[in-house]
Write a structure and sequence with these properties.
By secondary structure, the chain is of the alpha+beta class. It has 2 domains: 7-138, no CATH class; 200-320, no CATH class. The chain has helices spanning 7-24, 33-50, 63-66, 115-131, 150-171, 174-182, 184-194, 200-221, 226-234, 270-288, 293-321, and strands at residues 54-57, 71-75, 79-86, 97-100, 103-104, 112-113, 240-242, 245-248, 253-258, 263-268. The protein has a 4-stranded mixed beta sheet with strand order 1-2-3-4. Strands 7-8-9-10 form a 4-stranded antiparallel beta sheet. A two-stranded antiparallel sheet has the order 5-6.
């Protein structure tokens, strides 16, 4: 969930871990053509690293993270490239280089990066370092990739926005201006939080409540009693209990009042988290009950109405916490 990890962020982290492990290994043994191609790219990357190129990943709640940058590929003598890992959609501006990350759906590798995307990532790093035009530090220093506290994050993001605007005027390059404009949304979000957004405690409490409700749902859903799964199929869930307790299906947005102070918390990323939990539990059960008709039927039911039923149970949990009556 976000505040939490979305699919793109999880794949971004997996890609960075793979890159680090690759450059630390001595060899990539095997003679298959695909692995030979990886060996060749690994050699090119090693040459670039020796020449001073480094790859950094943006931490959550860093200036770079809010600026739409997942990786910074830089050389102290040349400059830097911003990169954004995307499972879907496009980068926020033309200055940011897009990195595609997609799930591998092959058996046994669900939710893992595809090999071709890993190779494409290395190819992009090599191409940028050799033929690309990095942003010079004198023109615009890169955004910070380390996590910042809320009190300094807003100011650092505004400073980076100002550097982009100055670079646009100095270089007569509209790409810098477009990036600065795209940051208005993130700046506005931080300003709103500064004026009285939910506390970190309220956000964490909401996450825990959601996780607990999801755990409870799947414990019953995959239990031996078929009645609960049957009821889910027939359920007509109400995903809007009030303006302050609602799940918006299209935007994957969850709103709820949390705690004694009734702080309004807005989270997204519920849907991928729920689907991930289902896939993990289903895969584990499939190892022990590979031909069980009841398990196959559970999968069919979940694919039809599973997400709505889980969210319905999450809303019930929050409604019980507030002492209000549950609505079906």
């Amino acid at each position: 969930m976000s505040n939490g990890k979305k699919q793109g962020q999880q794949l971004q982290e997996e890609l960075f871990r793979w890159y680090i492990s690759l450059i630390r290994e001595n060899t990539c043994a095997a003679a298959q053509p695909a692995v030979q191609g990886l060996n060749a790219l690994k050699h090119h990357i090693e040459v670039l690293v020796k020449d001073g190129w480094t790859l950094s990943m943006s931490e959550h709640s860093s200036t770079a993270d809010l600026a739409g940058v997942d990786f910074v590929w830089e050389n102290p003598r040349r400059g830097w490239f911003p990169l954004d890992a995307k499972a879907v959609g496009q980068t926020s501006c033309l200055l940011i280089n897009q990195v595609h990350v997609g799930n591998n759906t092959e058996a046994g590798e669900y939710k893992q990066l595809r090999f071709e995307d890993k190779l494409a990532f290395l190819e992009k790093l090599v191409a940028l370092a050799r033929t690309g035009r990095p942003i010079r530090y004198d023109d615009c220093a890169p955004p910070g990739v380390k996590t910042k506290c809320q009190s300094t994050l807003l100011e650092e993001l505004k400073q980076f926005q100002q550097r982009l605007q100055k670079a646009s005027s100095r270089l007569q390059d509209d790409r810098f201006r477009d990036w600065a404009t795209a940051l208005n949304k993130a700046v506005g979000f931080l300003l709103k939080q500064k004026r009285g957004g939910p506390s970190a405690e309220a956000i964490e409490a909401a996450r825990k409540a959601i996780n607990a409700a999801v755990e409870a749902f799947f414990a019953k859903y995959f239990g031996k009693n078929e009645m609960f799964a049957t009821q889910c199929m027939r359920l007509q869930p109400n995903l809007r209990r009030s303006d302050r307790l609602v799940y918006v299906y299209i935007d994957d947005m969850f709103k709820a009042e949390v705690g004694r102070d009734h702080e309004l918390v807005v989270l997204s990323g519920v849907a991928p988290m729920v689907r991930k939990q289902f896939e993990e539990r289903y895969a584990e059960l499939l190892k022990r009950h590979s031909a069980a008709e009841w398990l196959i039927q559970r999968k069919r039911t979940f694919e039809t109405k599973g997400l709505e039923c889980v969210v319905h149970n999450i809303l019930d949990a929050f409604q019980r916490q507030s002492g209000a009556r549950s609505a079906a």
